[in-house]
Amino acid sequence: MSLDDQAEELASALGIDKQEVKSKLETLAEYNVPMDEAVQSVRREYGDSGAAGAVISEKQVGEITPDDGNVSTTVRVLSVGKRSIQYNGERHVIFEGELADETGKISYTAWEDFDLSPGETLAIGNAGVREWEGEPELNLGESTDIEWVETELAVPYEIGGESTLESLEPGNRGVTVEVQVLECESKTIEGRDGETEILSGVVGDETARLPFTDWEPRAAVTEGNTIRIEDAFVREFRGAPSINISEFSTVTELPDPIGVVQSAPRKQIGDAVTSGGLFDVEVVGNIVAVRDGSGLIERCPECGRVIQNGQCRAHGEVDGEDDLRVKAILDDGTGTLTAVLGDELTAEVYGGGLDKAREHARDAMDREVVADDIRQSIVGHEYRVRGSLSVDEYGANLDATAFGPHEADPAEQAAALLTEVQP
Ligand SMILES: [Zn+2]
User: What distance in angstroms lies between residue 316's CA and the mean position of ligand 1's atoms?
Assistant: First the structure.
């Protein structure tokens, strides 16, 4: 539609002079404002919400694409999360979550408090659509018109944001979980308003373990407690989901402890690496090599970095401190990763701690003998490794919490055999 036609249509819809509308649209166009938004802006100026206008199409959730300018839709509220953000140097309280109909679900951000609650059915008029990580997202703002609908819209989704840890994804808002606090420590960080105290640690339920941060330390968030967290949001931390308890979240202590998964989900290395990061995972593979920087190593006493020839990259010449570490390359046919073993696991693999390693190195007059020994005993064998996987430009590293030879259990062997004999 040409600008002239737009002006004509808009003028008749608003009942005002066409020339007046046209010059406003032209001005906005000169500022590179997209036509859809320019039309909305003029509508707002004349006090029209736009819901009845021809420009805004009524769509089902599944039909909305990032290319839609503005849409109207009837949906059920799945979740409502409250959050404060810094925007143009000011603090704003916004609401975020998910909406759905029978064709799909969509994230939303409400820039005003519409007093939404999970379970409500809404007829939304004139919501803006923007793209967020390739997906459409609805923006509910000043020019959005919301009507509460009596008849409940049936949707094939859980209402209320209740979730298990396993199904959480970065970006989730208004989340409710029931978990046990497995680890918790207090930290002082440099915040926007100076030093602030936060809590961080690990929570677990029957499906998974995940890291968390409590930005407003609460007494109920204590190691061993079982708690219900309402209105949390999920961020990505080293490629894995991390639960954030904000100033708007509610934490209640539950009287009965809940079960926590003992084993980590087993994944193929290829899938694990493609996922971008996993907080707690188990893989099985062959050790194909032990990398340099393994065995008896030296760390900078200032920053803990591994140093070579007494030189730290950050602190220059330092008096190194001995430590034990293994960086082993694990391969299962679908992919490879580097399993990183700390001092305790390394001592188990090596069959002795720092004292034995130092003596060994002294006798041989070569520190490399420790890594060589470890290399001899583990390369070419199959191991099961559990830990936290992070993937970045330097590769995939699995920070090991458990490491041991893989002995296939009889059920597993039977299953593998069955797969082999099947045509
Ligand atoms: Zn250093």
Answer: 7
Give dist(CA 105, CA 79) in Å, integer. Answer: 11
CA of 277 to the centre of ligand 1 (A): 27
Pairwise CA distance, residues 287 & 282, whole Å: 15
Ligand 1 center from residue 237 Cα (angstroms) = 25
Name residues whose C-beta falls within 8 Å of residue 91's C-beta, 6 or more positions apart in sequence. 84, 85
Element (H, E) at 231: strand 226-237
Ranges in the chain, pLDDT < 50 = 50-54, 423
Between the CA of 293 and the centroid of ligand 1 the distance, in Å, is 16
The top-level CATH class assigned to 269-410 is mainly beta
354 Cα to the center of ligand 1, angstroms: 21
Q: What are the boundaries of each domain within the chain?
A: 3-45, 57-149, 165-253, 269-410
Asked if the domains at 165-253 and 269-410 fall in one CATH topology, the answer is yes
pTM of the shown model:
0.70
CB-count burial class (<10 Å; 0-12, 13-18, 19+) for 339: buried
Residue-wise pLDDT for 343-392, tens only, equals 999 999 999 999 999 999 999 999 999 999 999 999 999 999 999 999 98
pLDDT score, position 54: 45
Second CATH level (architecture) for the domain 165-253: Beta Barrel (2.40)
- pLDDT value, residue 57: 86
pLDDT for the residue 419 = 59
- In this prediction, residue 408 carries a pLDDT of 66
Q: What local confidence, expressed as pLDDT, does residue 89 receive?
A: 76
Give me the pLDDT at residue 51, please: 46
Q: From ligand 1's centre to the CA of 298, what distance in Å?
A: 11
Ligand 1 centroid from CA 319, angstroms: 10
Name the token pair of 74: 């009837």
Q: Name the percent of the chain in helix, strand, coil, to the closest 5.
A: 20, 45, 35
Contacts of 254 (CB under 8 A, 6+ apart): 178, 226, 227, 228
Q: Which CATH class is domain 57-149?
A: mainly beta
211 to 179, 234, 238: CA distances (angstroms): 11, 10, 11
Tell how far the Cα of 295 is from the centroid of ligand 1, in angstroms: 19
